[in-house]
């Protein structure tokens, strides 16, 4: 039934569907997965790095995790070039707000303004939707720690645990079973690693295929965004029994 109705983003089908927006969501379903989980003392973001070739130079910079402002970070699933444009837009909006009001931008307000931009690309001819979904992790004085998920249509919602990208349905069902409201950050990290190891396409989870970031408050009440190094990830994977420790050679 998509015939003729999927040539433009501006045409509704007789069933009331926008096929181009749905196709954009399908593109995200093929991307490396990203998972976000809310803890009582922070937010954890974890992402799967897709290694397409052994010959590819592995990037030392983050591929799935991006810091937007001191109090907001995001995980990305989808077309990275699209994501870069939106992340730059979000960073500029956050800095403009800080410059104007001398305080950090509320997390939901930042997410909403970015989703308004995404929605605009579904309503005008000659444009295509952004093929990217975000998980936003943040903290503000209004609502404390927050986790939001947004998709190409411009919709967003607050979540306690969410997954986007490949195998997100399987990840979501595991999260639904195992998530606890009062979980600590350490427990949430363990759950995130467990979910990713069970839903990834590759057989084994290693530090090279993984990115893990945490957002939490320091004792001085400032927001800290911490990205785990490969060595730290390897120790975490061994600790939680996902990989075997490497034998020390004498």
Automatic annotation (TrEMBL):
Transmembrane segments: none annotated. One of its GO terms (biological process) is ubiquitin-dependent protein catabolic process. Keywords: Cytoplasm, Nucleus, Proteasome. It is found in: Cytoplasm; Nucleus. Residues 5-27 form the Proteasome alpha-type subunits domain. Pfam families: Proteasome, Proteasome_A_N. Belongs to the peptidase T1A family. This is Proteasome subunit alpha type. It comes from Arabidopsis thaliana x Arabidopsis arenosa. The lineage of its organism: Eukaryota, Viridiplantae, Streptophyta, Embryophyta, Tracheophyta.
């Amino acid at each position: 039934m998509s015939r003729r109705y999927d040539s433009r983003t501006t045409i509704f089908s007789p069933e009331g569907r926008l096929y181009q927006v749905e196709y954009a969501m399908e593109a995200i379903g093929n991307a490396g997965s990203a998972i976000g989980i809310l803890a009582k003392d922070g937010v954890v973001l974890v992402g799967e790095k897709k290694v397409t070739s052994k010959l590819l130079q592995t990037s030392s910079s983050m591929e799935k995790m991006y810091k937007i402002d001191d109090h907001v970070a995001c995980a990305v699933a989808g077309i990275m070039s699209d994501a870069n444009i939106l992340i730059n837009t979000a960073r500029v909006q956050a800095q403009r707000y800080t410059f104007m009001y001398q305080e950090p931008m509320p997390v939901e307000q930042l997410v909403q303004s970015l989703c308004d931009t995404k929605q605009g690309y579904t309503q005008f001819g000659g444009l295509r939707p952004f093929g990217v979904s975000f998980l936003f992790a943040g903290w503000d004085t209004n609502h404390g720690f927050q986790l939001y998920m947004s998709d190409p249509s411009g919709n967003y919602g607050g979540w306690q645990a969410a997954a986007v990208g490949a195998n997100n349905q399987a990840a979501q069902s595991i999260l639904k079973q195992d998530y606890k409201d009062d979980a600590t950050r350490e427990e949430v990290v363990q759950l995130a690693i467990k979910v990713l190891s069970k839903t990834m396409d590759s057989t084994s989870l290693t530090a090279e295929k993984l990115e893990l970031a945490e957002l939490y408050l320091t004792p001085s009440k400032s927001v800290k965004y911490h990205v785990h190094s490969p060595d730290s990830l390897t120790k975490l994977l061994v600790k939680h029994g996902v990989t075997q420790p490497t034998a020390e050679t004498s």
